[in-house]
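Predict the 3D structure for this chain.
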Amino acid sequence: MAKLTDHLGRPVVAVTGVGIVTSLGVGKEDNWSALTSGRSGIHPITRFPTDHLNTRICGTVDFLESSSKGASPLTYELAETAAREAIGESGLSTNDFGGQLFLASPPVELDWKDRFDLYAAGHEGPAPDRVLEIARGLNSLDIFETSQFGSIADRLADTFGTRGLPITLSTACASGATAIQLGVEAIRRGECDRALSIGADGSVTAEALIRFSLLSALSTQNDVPEKASKPFSRDRDGFVIAEGAAALVLESLDSALARGATVLGILRGCGERADDFHRTRSKPDGSPAIAAVRAALSDAGLSEDEIGYVNAHGTSTPENDKMEHLSLSTVFGERIRSLPISSNKSMIGHTLSAAGAVEAAFSLMTMREGVIPPTINYDNPDPAIDLDVVPNVKRSADVKTVLSNSFGFGGQNTCLVLAREPV
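Done. Predicted structure below.
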């Protein structure tokens, strides 16, 4: 019989529902089929003009119709779609979920089209005064609410009937993993029996592209888009910006078993450490990332030898991949050469605020399906990064535990340890 508490006497946290949307498609089935086939979702940008831009490729979700209004409508649509699949799989009510909500999302911004519409509808005078005049003539409360950072979570809470104050967070590229961590901790503290953790990001705009380009963070290998994201390869030159969402229904194992739910996996441990070295670069000795991995293992009550697979952050930037190799080789020692480590970003790109949740979802599917997705585009190995990246072709494997890494700008490092079965 499965133990209902972990090595520290806390409730064991189970996953009973998963939902995914990426550039590969909507839903777990389409995403998993594409991911394990080594198919890329990266394509030329069609959403806005790319004349004179250094980067003209992306992993946008262009096939999801958004009927949402207000700021960041696509982020809301992605979050709702993933959440609906996850809750549906869990067997819980999609309009009376009854647990807490934790949403990782990007900062809310009005799209330029909306700004131009506001401007065009105004009267004569300086632009700021015109916008204020328009706002006064409309429902200013509605404008205020839809432009707030928490507006998406508020709408999701109303849609799915979550309980308590919905939490919206942003920890850069670690956001999705942080949303899961907050859900796990809430259940462990006894604040709720279940939680809905979502990472969603539909924020690929011309502005976002230019911002990351100014940081020299994006790939400029535009000619063959599907070959641009190449984590751990010698000729990697930056990440490919992308969109997506993943939702996990988390429950105490006691609650899940009591209602006869199917347990898809266990959230064994969470670890986080801050890095104050630089806004975009990692501390040269990798100590914060190393500490985050070790904190996750300690929280899970597992040793390094008990991890069967690493779902790498693997962004395809020269700096990140080098530092992730340093941190993993420090923690795992000589075993690092034989431990399978692959990057989903080689196919879906970097989904930013959603990445940690998307990759946790794929980690759960890796354990359940017994298949490790490959790192595609691995045609030019980096001799300084000696890893088994599961190159180019999926691999059958009996994986019982996964370490999923998320290392974000601003020194945000969050690692999750997931297991196939309860202790």
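Residues 116-145 form one domain.
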